[in-house]
Amino acid sequence: MSNIRIQLLSILNREPADSVNFVITKYILENIKYQKKISMSDMANACNVSKASISRYSKRLGYEDYFDFQLALATYRVSKNDYFYLNAIESDDLFNNYFSKVKNQVDYLSDNLDLGEIEHLVELIKSHDNIFLMGQVSSGFAAVSLQDNLTKLGKVVRTSHDFVEQKELIETLEDDALVIVFSAGGKFFERVEPNPITMQRLKKPTIYFITIDETKDYSYVNQTIVLGQETDYSSWMLLNVYSDLLYLNYKRKFDDESVS
């Protein structure tokens, strides 16, 4: 199943509204559910751009050519798990069931939190100067929040939300870098798809993967931190909670270096 929607949102949120890439992205997002197969000429005409622009756009998203991009469009599906979803019974008492699900997630994290993992990761944040926080769509909120909070303490870290940039960074950063990835659904690396040969290099970054549900093992990930039992519409909130806990622990340990 194609994960192209995440790629498209990454472009939409970073490009100027009058840019060619924005126009193409907006058109695809508005029509992807209804127009599974479209020729390069038809897309160029619909967006009022050249076929060369469509070709460059396909490569900007990381595809070999337009045909590869077209295949991703054709295989895109939205599953029930992709929606902000309450089943029929839960919807009868919408608000109470929503808060109940959120509370259950937070209670589980509180009962099963590994304080040692937080302590160790905070020490790594302190000792590294080259740090990237990554996430996609709602999972990216935790990265931005942690960046903002650490800056208050004089610790400067960078965030990356662009699909292509994330892949490039993971494939090129060396062993002086720390990468912290937030991914509620645990599919970050399936979407970014780092080159497996490149990830066998000796000088690669330390990578921490923070997710909600059990996920597959990746040989290049140093530590996977699982926060919950199952992934649902409230899962991304646990990433924000964990982000706050990292900040609070960093503040507790190194508050004397904080800035006003």
TrEMBL record:
InterPro entries registered for this protein in UniProt: Homeodomain-like_sf, HTH_RpiR, RpiR-like, SIS_dom_sf, WH-like_DNA-bd_sf
One Pfam short name: HTH_6
The organism of origin for this protein: Enterococcus pallens ATCC BAA-351
A biological process from GO: carbohydrate derivative metabolic process
Highest taxon listed in the record's lineage: Bacteria
Domain spans labelled HTH rpiR-type: 4-80
GO molecular function terms attached to this record: carbohydrate derivative binding; DNA binding; DNA-binding transcription factor activity
Name the record gives this protein: HTH rpiR-type domain-containing protein
